[in-house]
Amino acid sequence: MHNFTLHTPTKILFGEGQVSALRSQIPDQARVLITYGGGSVVRSGLLARIREVLSGLTVFEFGGIEPNPHYETLVEAVHLAREKQVDFLLAVGGGSVLDGTKFIAAATHYQNDPWQILENAGADVHGAIPLGSVLTLPATGSEMNMGAVITRHSTGDKRHFHSAHVMPRFAVLDPVLTYTLPERQVANGVVDAFVHVVEQYLTYPVDAKVQDRFAEGLLLTLIEEGPKALREPENYAVRANLMWSATMALNGLIGAGVPQDWATHMLGHEITARHGLDHAQTLAVILPLMLDEKREQKREKLLQYAERVWGITHGEEGLRIDLAIAATRAFFERMGVKTHLRDYGIDQPDVEGMVAKLAEHGYLGLGEHGDVTLEVSRRLYQAAR
After folding, report:
1. Which residue of 26, 44, 66, 173 is surrounded by the most CB atoms within 10 Å?
2. Torsion 135-139-145-149 (CA) sign
């Protein structure tokens, strides 16, 4: 196991009705900016409930943060936060709202062009407005980590940044708030969380038994509960387990002390930026191809994955790996998330355009071994059809 430092200071308020505890988590006299996405938090009455809980504080609102949040929209929120002298941010929504709010937090007092936060991956962020969240869509784990992904719509760039300064102070996780999610969002959330685990688990062994067992437990939970959530949308136990799994998938715990991959995510980001697919859809397309492409480098962990997650123990090693990859693809399909670009009406993906963007962003050697070269990426994009 590699050396690691793990610090996860986010306070989790988990369970039904925890929105009522929101006021005690925000400093007295705070000037709060509530951020949210579309109209679902308005239609559901959640925003009105939060306004009621925060009565007595000075509260402003900024809505319209998109899925794959747009830099252009977030800059408008930054101007509002500066104008209103906001000193606390409350993100109400899913991972996109949280990611966007992290950018607002970092950019409001940033002295340079805010896009440099993304260009520099957060390296020069030296402070941020404190933030908390009320999660409505479990998927990204953004409620308990320091990362964010932002899209510059005008240029087709999708970039990420990390900073300890944007780690949420708290997160309200009420499974009941997920009952009315559309099936597509539920399915995407399960796939997103699943691939988050895989990117930290399916690399090569470093004798990190605790992390491996945690990761395998999360994968098994997602496999068991994901399809149930589609069949039983108001099953509290199912929703609770999915919500906590998505948080645990990317809060640093299973990635501590182990090699990590993330090549599937980087290739997927370019598909979203170029062709507009949902983030989880791109992961479902790329991951099975990536596992097959790197089957030799990942052989030991793929065999472990086959046995411990899918119960595949018989046959020669190559067959077991084939079956594990096929089971992964079948799980995504069972969740209703298709695994070929043609399934989304993309028969001729802009392979060269996406490879050029990878090169522009410096992604010349991705993966745990740095061996997902531009040529490998080109091959995967071509196979994704």
Report:
1. 173
2. negative
Q: Residue 39 — very low, low, confident or very high, per pLDDT cuts 50/70/90?
A: confident
Q: How far is CA 221 from CA 1, 215, 243, 250, in A?
A: 25, 10, 11, 15
Question: Nearest 10 degrees: CA dihedral of 8, 265, 254, 162?
Answer: -20
Residue with tokens 């402003």: 60
357: its two tokens: 């963007």
* Residues with Cβ within 8 Å of residue 262, at least 6 apart in sequence: 199, 366, 367
* pLDDT-derived band at 359, boundaries 50, 70, 90: very high
Tell me how far apart the alpha carbons of residues 128 and 111 are, in angstroms, rounded to a whole number.
12
Across 43-81, b (16+ Cβ under 10 Å) vs e yields eeebbeebeebbeebebbbbbebbbbbbbebbeebbebb
Residue type, 131: L
Q: What is the DSSP string of 81-129?
A: HHHTT--EEEEEESHHHHHHHHHHHHHTT--S-THHHHHTTTTT-----
Separation of alpha carbons 320 and 298, rounded Å? 13
Rounded Cα gap, residues 350 and 348, in angstroms: 6
Q: In sequence order, what are the beta bridge partners of 62? A: 35
- Sign of the CA dihedral with 208 first, then 209, 213, and 216 last: positive
CB neighbour burial string for 279-315, b if at least 16 within 10 angstroms, e if fewer: bbbbbbbbbbbbbbbbbebbeebbbbbbebbbebeee
- Average pLDDT across the chain, whole number: 97
Closest CA to 156 of 372, 385, 374, 358: 358
One-letter amino acid of 259: P
Burial 213-233 (b: 16+ CB within 10 A, else e): ebbbbbbebbbebbbebeeeb
Q: Which residue's structure tokens are 């929209």?
A: 73
Interhelix angle 374-383/263-275, rounded to 10 degrees, is 60
Residues 269 and 264: their CA atoms lie apart, in Å, by 9
Mean of pLDDT values over 44-65: 96
Q: Helices in the chain by DSSP H: which ranges?
A: 40-43, 46-53, 71-83, 95-107, 115-119, 183-201, 209-231, 236-248, 263-275, 279-293, 299-308, 317-334, 351-360, 374-383
Strand partners, 246: none
